[in-house]
Design brief:
about 110 residues
Length: about 110
């Protein structure tokens, strides 16, 4: 039951991030932020575990800008602005602190 709850929290967190990302993009259209949808699934008959979360696979390179432990990379101003926006826009109930970017690789 604990894994099921953790998966649900992951999906809800992703949905909140997507919601706030869309609100941020409407307010600041020159600073696009997007989040993928994720899903909670039940894996019947799987020996490793019964619950998991899924999201689309994006091939490419990722760069971490911020995390939940206070890490802030150089050049993370957009991630910091979005983090602050989520805190203010949610009435101080939500704070998106973990941010990274994805760059699609067109050649190897």
């Amino acid at each position: 039951m604990q894994a099921e709850k953790e998966c649900l929290v992951d999906v809800q967190t992703q949905a909140y991030a997507k919601f706030f990302g869309e609100a941020f993009a409407q307010r600041f259209p020159d600073a696009p932020i997007q989040f993928l949808e994720s899903w909670q699934v039940e894996l019947l008959g799987c020996p490793i575990g019964r619950h998991a979360t899924l999201e689309p696979f994006l091939e490419g390179k990722y760069q971490k800008y911020t995390n939940n432990s206070g890490f802030i990379a150089e050049g993370a101003k957009l991630a910091e602005a979005f983090s602050h926006f989520t805190f203010c826009h949610s009435g101080q109930h939500y704070h998106q602190a973990n941010a990274h970017t994805h760059t699609q690789m067109t050649s190897l």
